[in-house]
Design brief:
The protein is an alpha+beta fold and 182 residues long. The chain has 4 helices and 6 strands. The chain has a 6-stranded antiparallel β-sheet with strand order 1-2-3-4-6-5, with helices on both faces. A hairpin with a 5-residue loop joins β5 (126-128) and β6 (134-141).
Length: 182
């Protein structure tokens, strides 16, 4: 994934995150208008479908509509870790071509760690936010057709990748020694 794409994804999520005035919390969601599709091949996905499928996968989820009309799904991947799942390539917040996970952790890492992580994990990049927090991102496209189980599994994959980051210990280059002058 090119640096420009990574930066674009990060900026898009920062704008979405900034548009909500509070840390994401479950419990303020709206009721679905109609039951979401949970069988067959999915080529366009609705925020309600994401909520239902993530909930069926064991992750408490809800749909939230922001004041600016932006719709997102909040998904608790682990106690205290709520991911923002933003539908992308949508027509009026419906019929979306995919979705992107964003999880911001309070911990921070050095830029060298993030660069090493991104070299090895190109489909789940990490970023250092302006406030020093660590963010993980993963985009999922559905346009070519995916099963409901694939959507459910994507939340598990993202959670597992974020969990694996705790054990990621890249080989950092050692500082070069300069020869001593006599």
């Amino acid at each position: 994934m090119s640096s420009a794409v990574k930066v674009s994804l990060i900026l898009a999520f920062l704008i979405i995150a900034a548009s909500s005035n509070a840390q994401p919390k479950l419990g303020d969601g709206a009721k679905p208008e109609s039951p979401p599709q949970t069988t067959g091949l999915i080529t366009k996905i609705q925020p309600e479908q994401l909520k239902e499928l993530f909930t069926a996968a064991g992750f408490e989820s809800e749909v939230q509509k922001q004041d600016d009309g932006t719709v997102m799904v909040l998904t608790e991947l682990a106690p205290g870790h709520v991911a923002i799942v933003s539908p992308i390539s949508c027509t009026q917040n419906k019929d979306c071509g995919g979705y992107v996970f964003l999880l911001v952790l309070s911990k921070s890492e050095r830029k060298a760690w993030i660069d090493a992580w991104n070299d090895e994990n190109q489909f789940q990049p990490a970023a250092l936010l302006v406030d020093g927090k660590l963010a993980f991102i993963m985009a999922v496209r559905v346009l070519s057709g995916v099963t409901p189980d694939y959507v459910k599994q994507s939340a598990t994959w993202f959670r597992d990748v974020v969990n694996d980051s705790a054990f990621f210990k890249p080989q950092m280059p050692k500082p070069r020694k300069t020869p001593r002058r006599r």
